Amino acid sequence: MTVLCVRFLLPPMYEAALPRLLGLLEEFTPVVQALPPDGALADLRGAERYFGRTALELASVIRVRALALHGVDCVIGAGPGPMLARMALRDARPGLTRAVPEDEVREFLAGRPVAALPGVGARTARTLCEYGLDTLGRVAAAPLSTLQRLIGARAGRELREKANGVDRGRVVPNAVSRSLATERPFTRDELDPGRHRRALLSAAEELGARLRAVDKVCRSLTLTVRYADRSATTRTRTLPEPTAHSAALVGAAYGLYEVLGLQRARVRVIALRAEGLAPAEQASHQLTFDPVDEKVRRLEEVADRARAKFGPRAVMPGTLAA
To answer: CA 256 → CA 116, 225, 252, 269, 299, distances in Å?
Structure first.
């Protein structure tokens, strides 16, 4: 077990704390990959030799330091590679690292549903399940030719390797996240367009606050609407200029929703993803000389400071970009 997948138990919209926590991991290894908003991968191969401790022992030290120095608990998964560490993280809980030793990989994977494997989407999982390949153990035992016939040559080969525990991924140091996402699930199938729009408003304002917290702007916005029958519709719009301005994100989200032309659709989840992230200082902003726009931006700055001091619920959704 040489790779840790760490998820820090941060409150929502607190990505600004993540760089300090990444610095804690970098005290043990320079091979750290950020997984915003609240996680990271760390390759400890060199650290095990340098410190003379196992990855599990180092994971315990990391947890204690995160609590002592930053007041943040964490959950940790450990495995021979990034894929297995991520999967192990799903079974982890505070105070106990979930580890997958190299000689137990096949046993760990065998009984898990095929959809649990990173990279397997709903459509691929549905296709495999229709042919009885509903667990990773069955996928691992299936002939390669069968998998390639079902999902394609390259995808079938990669799926079979992963189902057999072959993890070719690696931890990429200082990898910059290219997107941020949030979603708004409904407690029941929601037909009311008004509630759809309120969910969009809340999600877009959250994305704007999260982008500003890490000094990023996004170049495009993607809307995904999932329905009661488990189907989904996705649309993407490139923004007129890179932005983290909540009002601009809300307008783009509303535009994407209107394009769908939903009529009495039974919506289960609305999700937004800000993509093409870049440093805010490198982005240009078109001056509008609009006093209303400038006032809204100043209000955003005040709201961001309130969130940083009092928590994410300090500002009610809709108060800035309604």
So the answer is: 30, 10, 6, 15, 25
